[in-house]
Structures are given as C-alpha cells and as structure tokens.
Amino acid sequence: MEQHAPNRRLNSRAYLLSLCLGGLLINFVGVQLARYFHLPLYLDNIGSALAAALGGYIPGIIVGFLTNLVNGIFDFETTYYASLTVLIAVASAYFKKRGFYEKPSRLPIIIVTFAFIGGFLGSVLTWLIYGFGFGEGISAPLAHKIYELGHLSVFWSQLSADMLIDLVDKTITVLAVALVLKLLPKEQEDRFFFYGWRQTPLSEQAQAEIDKKVYRRMSLRPKIILLVSVATLLTAVIITGISAYFFRDASIKEQITLAKGVVDVVRNSFDHDMVDEYLEKGEEAEGYLRSEAIIKHLMDSTDNIEFCYVYRIREDGCHVVFDPDTEDVPGRDPGYVEAFEEGFTKYVPALLDGREIDPIITRDKYGWLLTVYEPVYDSNGMCTCYAAVDINMDHIATSIYQFLVRVVSFFLGFFIMILTITLWLAEYHVILPINTMAVATGNFAFDSETSRDKAVENIAQLDIQTGDEIENLYRATTKTMEDMVRYVAYIQRQNQLIGKMQNGLILVLADMVESRDECTGEHVRKTAAYTRIIMNQLKKEGIYADQLTEEFMDDVENSAPLHDVGKIQVPDAILNKPGKLTDEEFEIMKTHTTAGAQIIDQAISMVSEGNTRYLQEAKNLAHYHHEKWNGRGYPCGLSGEDIPLAARVMAVADVFDALVSKRSYKDGFPFEKAMAIIQEGSGNHFDPKVAEAFIHAGEEVHRVMNTYMGL
Length: 711
What we know:
The chain is of the alpha+beta class. Helices cover 62% and strands 6% of the residues.
C-alpha cells in the first residue's frame, strides 16, 4: 500500500486566515452592495461558498457562521439564520469534493440545493420566528404582494417569495464561485485547501484503504461523532431549557410590573372618597363617566390588557364600582354583584380584611391571565374597594416559542461548526495517526531482513507530531519496532549459529557411525546432496508440492546423514565383512533401521520443548529408508505412499550411492549403469515419481558424484 504522498504540502495558518478573512469580506461587501442599491437579494453566501470550495468544510463553516454574527451588528435577526449559511457552506464543500463545480451541467443541482436551504428552509424558519406570520426581511414586500392576490396563505406566500428571490440569489452565488474556480490556477487552488496533517500526509489511496478496515464494533470516527453530538446536544438542551425558564420568568415579572402600573393608573382615575356614591348613583355620580372613560381608554391602549375594573369585596360577592365594556364582554353596571368564582374564594378573607394579595396567574376560559388586585384607601385610611387589571399572557407563550426557535436555529449553526471542527481535529490528531500506526505495524513483515528494515522505515516515515499522548505512543512504537528488528536479527544469527552447530554435530555423529564401516566413505554427505537434488526436481515439476515446503526440504537434507545411525549397534564383523552376509547376519544387519528409529526416539523424548520436526524426519529416514514401493522392503513391509516421502527419497539416493561407490567386495558402477538400475527399479523398489525426478536431474547428480569422487 502506498502510504505517503510527498507532493501534498502542509498548509500554513496564513492561508486559512486569508481565506476566512477574504470570505468574510466578500460576504460583507455583497450584503452592503445589495442594501446600497436596494436590490431584493442577499448576496451573503458567495464568500462562505467560495471558502468552502477552496479550503474545505472548516473555513467554509467558519466564514458562514461569522458572517451572520458580523451582519447581526446591523440587523440582529440575521444571526438566527447562521445555521442556513453554515449548511450552504457544507453543501458547497461537498459539491466541490465531487467535482460539481467543474461541470456546467451540474451547476443547476448546486443552485437548487442552495435555494432549497436558503429559500425553503429559510422561509420555514422565518414563519416560525415571526409567530406564523410574515417576516420583515428582503422578501417581505414580495410576500405581501403574493398574499394580496388572494390565492395563497401567509405561509405559502412567504415561501413563494423566498424561493423566487433565493433562486436568483443562489444562481449569482454559484456562478461567482464557479468562475473563480475556473480562473484560479490549479496550483494556487491547492494551496488554499486546508489540511491538518500532524504526520507525513497520506495519499487518497492509503486513506481509502484505512477507511475500508472492518472493526469488531465501532471505529473511532462514529464514536467521536456520537460523543460530541450527545454532549453538545445535552448541553444545548439544558442551556436552552434554563434560558427558556428565565425568559418566561422575566416575561412574567415584566407583565406584573406592567399590571401594577396599570392598576396605579386605574386607582388614581377616581375619587377614593366617592366609592359609596358611585355604587349608589352609578353614572349620575359626579365624575363617574370621566373616570370610566379613563379606565376604558387604558383598556384599549394595548391588546394585552383584557380587563380593568374596580370592585368592592363583600361576603356576598364582588360589588362592581367600575367595569367598562370590552369588545368581547359587556361591562357591569355599578352596584352589580359578581359571585366569587371557585378558584377565587381562597383570596376572599384577605380581600375582606383590606389586605394586599400577590398577583394571581390563572389558565381558564379567558386564557392565560395575570390578575393584580391593589387596595384603594379613602382619606380616613379605610379600604373602600380594590382596583384590578387582567393581563392576557398568551403572547408570552408565543414569545417563548419564538425564543426557542431562535435559540435552536442559532445553535444548529453553532453545533454544525463545533461538530465539524471537532471531527476535523479528531481526524488529523487522533484517527489518522492511530490508523496509520495500526496499518504500519499490522503490515510488519518478519520474513527477511529487507522486509523488516522496510517496515521500520515505513513506520519512521509517518513522522507523527500531534504533541500529545498519541505522539508519545508513536515514538514508543517506533522504538519498540526498531528494538524488535534488532532483536529478531540477533535471534536469527543465533539460530543460524545453532543450526550450523546442529548440522555439524549430526555430521560428526554420522561420521562416527560411518567410520566403523570401512567401505562407505563420504556416503552420508553424498546421500544428503542427492536428497536435495531429488526434492528440488520434484518441486520444480510440481510433484508432491503440498509436502515439499522449504522447511521440509531443509529438515530432510539436514537429517539425512542420520539415516544409518542404527548401524552403531551392528557388530563390526558383520558391518565390515568382505563377502556376502549369511541369512542370520543379514537379519542382524536389517536391525539397524529399527535401532536408528529407537535412538532418534530417545533424542526426541529429551527435547520436551522446541522444534523436533527435523528429528521426526530423521526418524522416518532411519526407520523406513529400506522400504520398497512394492512392499517387499524392511523392516515394516510398507508399500506405496504409506512409506514416508523422506524415506522414499532417501531410498533412491542411498541405492544410487551404493551402486556408484567402490566397496571392498566390488567396484563402483559407471554413472549410466547406475542410472539404468534406478530406472529398472522404478515402480518396484522405488517411488516412480521420485525415481523419474532423479533421472531428470541426472546432470546435477553426475556433477555431485564426480565432486565427491575427486573427478
């Protein structure tokens, strides 16, 4: 896997800063131009869309979010649309990554997407922010005109106006971005893209391979998204809930202050010493109509004041002093007795005593009402009646709803920005460094010194510089790998030394055994060489390929000198007899196969741990090298492939060397004669495939034979 892309430069912070400032300036200038020339356009997304297309998600989102904050200095309502600007920046970066800006046929897709975000979603947001009514922005005049046609509701009129304006606005935005991208040289465009590499940059191919990795449960990326999302949303919900609570509390307190002010006006609108006369004469009492008019005017001054009235509280009910007519409810004449409502009775004792009571908040058939009663005292300090006001607080619920919509809208843009920045930081500071370390260490190869050195070099080339625990982990991993490579090299050198010592000891042991046989000479070395030639040829021809591994071939060649180790138990008189052996002597000679197997078995039993593979092959060689393919060999009479492969190979090598070597009782056969005898024994004495391979490698066999014979 190609891990590194050396031509991808790390972008400096200067490019990010210049891109963000440039995008902000473009957006700001666009807005001011639209205002100056009274254009029914926004022109507030060109800079953020361009920043996203050039630099990626991070600069685009930053520019989009800050644009609304800056524009909010002149029009605070625009801050609530930050989420839409941020979404347009995200879409712009997405389309640029997939090459939409470079293809004119794809530009309408970008325009429609931008218009949907700014027009459709923006219109829904406006409708919610302004309490299910018309907005006050650029699209408001057009929305009113569409509504006046009488075919569409407020919502659809606002939506139609916003979509029409946004289609034009976003067409200008997309064409401007596409033009800049077309005119800007490719090398300059690459400089602006904001990478955050804290290591040697990876190629797109390497990143794709990392992304394809399968995880047992979940990768870091979705875990971080989940963690950040939950934490941010939880924080937002708590803060929004607390804010809404305080907003509601502050609004209620504001209404209480208003109600008390209104009550003071009502209380000061009539003569406190004339309450009895008002009750007795009503409108005929002096100044009654003037006072009633003041109270009526006060009620009509604002929609939130439902009722203003003056009652004298008696045990039989509320005696009306002033209760002007309202648009929906007729007034009560002076002296009319209003029975106490069920929920009001708990306040009656205090009112009968002329004491003050706390403001009353109720939800009933009249809606969400705030009622404030204030005692009215005559010149003698006696409570003659109560001045009261009912304030409708349904508008507070609407205000809270609008407040929540504004907060959620603003938070959504902030959330997208925080989530994107967090993921970007996590990607370059955590996910990619850890994954590249995992890939580099997971691909670590021990098969050769070159592979090991290359693997360490690949890890060192990552050059992770996060400046935190991950960098410490990387440094520790790199050092561990370097130490491991050195240790493996040391172990391999020791193994090679041990292997040489082992082979040397085997040859010494074999020589000691063979030295008792005055006729065999270099037999153990020659047969070992012949076995390697046979196995190489078999592998070359694809015969017994599944068995002929490098380990198997090395074990057979290295343990071949032990095939006659059992002769150590054969008496010298029989071993070195110049003539033909008697039947009894031959039976004793045949015991060297089982004796050899027993000797090697004892060696195996002494090696409780470690690799005894080569000893197992040595045992097979010693025990079965006199078995014959047709089943007439000894000591077990095995036939065909029941005979271990190592023994079948040794059978050919052993017989051939016996044929060409000089003995006290015969001269050695010529090479051609010996090869002919091997050919004749194929399928009877020898495995035909092994014999055939031996014959095919005749040239190399002849060279080895001549080498050991000094020819």
